[in-house]
Design a protein that fits this description.
3 helices, 179 residues, Heat Shock Protein 90, ATP binding, nucleotide-binding, 22% strand
């Protein structure tokens, strides 16, 4: 498993390959797998986690224009979820973990902390400048055709997750070129 704070290793379907990831054929889509990033619940965790997730998405074959909007959405979601965990759960949960999972046709990001409070998405309030991170996560997820939720963990904390569909391959023109 990958850790932001130190040595990294990843789970993979092909441990014999140099980076631990199976070889990917162009156009097939990203390589499935699951990776966990652990960080101290401090402000620095937000950019560290965002960069680790971005790097892993690219390493799994999600480079290029086809995936750009999805990656942007995922990085916004992970930034909001980690920021919320740092801001609201650090007192009870000095460490947090983020899991990135890629499956057949979907990608899921989940942030787990030990705080028992299950937040709800706040509605827009023009008088309040903060407190709408979860609403933003929910909106981005739904607009992308995905789902999100908050669940209790066995240890009494919570995990907040969002699952988004992978973009469909672009159709080839009759002459074999992509649109």
């Amino acid at each position: 498993m990958e850790q932001i704070s130190g040595a990294a290793s990843s789970t993979s379907t092909d441990p014999g390959s140099p980076d631990g990831a199976a070889a990917r054929r162009p156009g097939v889509g990203p390589e499935p797998g699951a990776w966990r990033f652990v960080a101290d619940a401090q402000e620095a965790a937000v950019p560290q986690t965002r960069h680790a997730v971005r790097d892993r998405l690219l390493a799994q074959g999600m480079a290029g224009e086809r995936y750009q909007e999805l990656i942007d959405d995922l990085l916004l979601i992970v930034s909001e979820l980690v920021s919320n965990a740092v801001t609201h759960a650090a007192v009870v949960s000095p460490r947090l973990s983020t899991e990135l999972a890629i499956g057949e046709g979907w990608v899921r990001i989940a942030v787990e902390d030990l705080h028992p409070y299950r937040p709800k998405a706040l509605e827009s309030d023009l008088g309040n400048l903060g407190g709408r991170g979860l609403l933003l996560v929910k909106s981005v997820t739904l607009q992308a055709g995905g789902t999100c939720d908050v669940e209790r963990t066995e240890g009494g904390g919570k995990v907040i997750w969002a699952s988004l569909p992978l973009p469909a391959p672009r159709a080839a023109e009759p002459d074999g070129h992509l649109w």
